[in-house]
Amino acid sequence: MLNYDGKCRHLHGHNAKAEIEIEAASLDHRGMVMDFGDINAVVKSWIDRELDHKMLLCKDDPMLKTLQVLNEPCFVLDQNPTAENIAKLIYDYAVSQGLQVSEVRLWETPTSFAVYR
Question: Does the active-site annotation cover 23?
Fold first, then answer.
């Protein structure tokens, strides 16, 4: 991570879990806000395709060009790939697909998470 002095300043990976909260003023004819399968079809498939097993890097990271030359899979963000920015990225994608998202909670570890609303 750029401009950060903690232990996450070094290249590393995480296994994260995303919780997506959907809201609506009323339930549909099935008694649902939205079927979980429909959410997965939109968001989980995008996460699996775009983020899973890829190095998430800021566009200004000095390692980006080297990894790209080596054909290493990368997902490039405009800012540091913090839990907060990844939660926002997922939120923005879900909203762009028409989901009525109220928040995304990204669990970086079993005890640490970030929320974007």
Answer: no
- Catalytic choice (10, 12, 29, 53): 53
Per the annotation, the verdict on 19 as an active-site residue is no
Measure the CA–CA gap between 79 and 59, rounded to whole angstroms. 7
8 an active-site residue? yes
CA distance 4 to 107: 20
Domains in the chain: how many in total? 1
Residue 92 lies in a domain: yes
Q: Which of 8, 14, 50, 84 is catalytic?
A: 8
Domain holding 38, by residue range, is: 7-116
> Residue 53: left (phi > 0), alpha (psi -120 to 50), or beta?
left
Tell me which H or E stretch contains 86: helix 83-96
30-86 pLDDT, tens digit each: 999 999 999 999 999 999 999 999 999 999 999 999 999 999 999 999 999 999 999
User: Which pTM was predicted?
Assistant: 0.88
Q: Residue 12: which CATH number?
A: 3.30.479.10
